[in-house]
Design a protein that fits this description.
The complex is a heterodimer of chains A (365) and B (210). Chain A contains 15 helices and no strands. Chain A has 365 residues and is mostly helical. The two termini of chain A are 34 Å apart. In chain B, 40% of the residues are buried. Classes of the chains: A mainly alpha (365), B alpha/beta (210). The interface between A and B is medium-sized, with 27 and 32 residues.
């Protein structure tokens, strides 16, 4: 029994956290990265969840989204040929196999379970027993039902892979700068959705709630920089993807300028939803010339994050520190109102890094 | 054709290749060497995929560091075990390569037909077998107007018919003046690929063993 659990832990569970390291780092930043009281924030959030059915529903929706990620990962991974060794588990009784799959689900669903546990404890303390019961029942179902999916895959029955693409397939030409975006759409959907959700939440709250006494572009600029920084984990994933699958593109005869232009285009398309959404704040929060400053700042920030990753083998934890260091430094500079010069400077630094390191970068691990 | 001057390849502090001075002539070149001797590293350096110290000169006037675009327009490369994003199709890659290397799409499509993978031209590569991926990467190595084609283990993974097609295409290109550096652990029949230079990568350097 121990050996089965040990193999499942290494093959499925550890691999899940490894491939989603960027997603979890981003989630950690989102939930625990605020400068003020983290405990106070989460207590307020939990109070909202146990007291309001709407809040509870939003929590269930987000947990379901995460669960779909778990189910999709495990179902697909079990179907890979290299996992055929796991099919020997079919020689065990079906019930035992299902329990092993429940174990896998418990381990990869653990982040939600821990948060749900905190909610249940607070709910019982404050006598919101019905909320506690809903959370418990929802999470039990979230653990037991997906195990049936996994068992189905283990038995090589006609599977149900969730989140398949749309049935109507339309051919979209995939030029080099668009390939990483297709990668995000096909293989990092949840990460993209969570990032966009946070980004839109920050922008819409700012535009709705902030009422300036006089015109000043800096508050919105800072908000845009936070939104761009929320995409840093995505940029990390894009670099990982490029190193693994697009290394051949270094053999294509493109100039530095063209390659950097491709990077600009990719970042522009990635940020296009936010750039369009920004117009909801016009003319109260910005004028048209300043819009270009916002646009350039967001794009150049992503270019800088990308270029920093070319300077060496930077792991996620070090990268997060660098990203926050850059953001903190730029926050300080923005206070002096440097105008369009700051995004231009960031863009020039990005290009400098890109020019110096693009062809010299080589993964050492 | 290719001249190496004080070329060194380091992985961290480990010296993987050290080529003080060496010339590879035009024609069909067989690059031999044990596993881990540095053959793939050498090909990747020439193809611009790996950084290195020193100078690699093509035609005595182009270096990858100073004239990268012109150099890469003339040098194509096919990996031993190519990896492509599973959501791309052969059509995407053919278009990308033909755009970058200024190649003829129909020419590449004909080669895919010869290799019997054209029926899957519009399918995602995730549905391809490893042999089909290998055939695609070989077809892509012939796009454009290369002067030098680097093929890393081109004869493994693919079926016997495809081996014959690839050997024939290589010979046609050699007759047109294209040079090849090919690594292969398999013994290649002289009638299939009439090599005019045999090189050995050993002891962290490259030597001529003709």
């Amino acid at each position: 029994m121990r050996i089965v659990i040990s193999i499942l832990q290494r093959v499925l569970v550890n691999h899940f956290y490894k491939v989603n390291a960027g997603f979890f780092a981003f989630l950690f930043f989102l939930l625990f990265g605020m400068p003020n009281s983290v405990a106070g924030f989460h207590l307020a959030l939990i109070n909202g969840i146990i007291k309001s059915n709407s809040f509870l529903f939003v929590a269930f929706a987000l947990w379901t989204l995460y669960n779909l990620k778990c189910i999709n990962y495990t179902s697909k991974y079990l179907k890979e040929e290299k996992q055929n060794v796991l099919f020997t588990l079919n020689s065990l009784p079906v019930y035992a196999c299902w329990l092993y799959m429940v174990y896998v689900q418990v381990m990869i669903y653990m982040p939600v379970l821990l948060y749900a546990l905190a909610i249940v404890i607070v709910a019982i303390q404050k006598h919101y027993y019905s909320s506690a019961l809903y959370v418990v029942l929802f999470n039990i179902a979230s653990l037991l039902l997906p195990a049936i999916f996994y068992l189905n895959n283990l038995q090589k029955k006609q599977g149900f892979i969730l989140l398949k693409g749309p049935l109507l397939r339309i051919y979209l030409p995939k030029s080099l700068p668009l390939i990483p975006l297709f990668f995000l759409w096909h293989q990092r959907k949840q990460m993209l959705l969570v990032t966009k959700f946070f980004s839109f939440l920050a922008l819409s709250l700012f535009i709705k709630l902030y009422e300036p006494d006089h015109y000043d572009i800096r508050p919105l600029l800072l908000c845009c920089m936070v939104c761009a920084t929320a995409h840093s984990a995505i940029i990390f994933e894009v670099r990982e993807f490029e190193e693994q699958y697009l290394s051949f593109s270094r053999n294509l005869p493109f100039t530095y300028i063209k390659r950097f232009a491709q990077l600009l285009l990719m970042n522009f398309i990635l940020l296009l939803p936010e750039l369009l959404f920004l117009w909801k704040g016009y003319p109260l929060h910005f004028n048209i010339p300043d819009y270009f400053q916002l646009l350039l700042m967001m794009i150049s920030l992503l270019c800088l994050f990308y270029s920093v990753l070319l300077t060496g083998d930077i792991l996620m934890d070090a990268y997060v520190k660098i990203v926050f260091g850059i953001l903190a430094g730029l926050f300080f500079v923005v206070l002096y109102n440097p105008g369009i010069f700051l995004p231009c400077l960031v863009m020039i630094i990005s290009f400098g890094f890109y020019f110096s390191y693009y062809y010299d970068y080589e993964r050492q691990y | 054709m290719l001249r190496f001057e004080n070329v060194q390849k380091l992985y961290g502090n480990f010296l993987a290749l050290d080529i003080p001075s060496f010339t590879i002539n035009n024609g069909l070149v067989w690059l031999k060497g044990e596993n881990g001797s540095g053959k793939t590293t050498l090909l990747k350096m020439i193809a611009g995929l790996h950084p290195f110290k020193g100078t690699i000169l093509l035609n005595d006037n182009l270096t990858i560091k100073n004239q990268r675009q012109q150099f890469l327009s003339l040098v194509n490369y096919a990996e031993a075990e190519p990896l492509y994003p599973s959501f791309l199709t052969a059509r995407d890659l053919v278009k990308l390569y033909c755009h970058a290397k200024k190649g003829d799409i129909q020419h590449t499509q004909r080669l895919l037909q010869q290799l019997h993978i054209y029926d899957d031209y519009k399918k995602p590569l995730g549905a391809y077998s490893s042999g089909m991926i290998k055939k695609l990467s070989l077809a892509l190595a012939f796009t454009g107007n290369p002067q030098l084609i680097l093929l890393d283990e081109p004869l493994i993974t693919i079926d016997a018919d495809a081996v014959n097609v690839i050997c024939a295409v290589i010979q046609q290109h050699v007759e047109k003046g294209v040079s090849f550096i090919i690594t292969s652990h398999q013994a290649v029949e002289q009638y299939q690929l009439p090599f005019n230079q045999v090189l050995l990568v050993a002891n962290r350097t490259i030597i001529n063993i003709n």
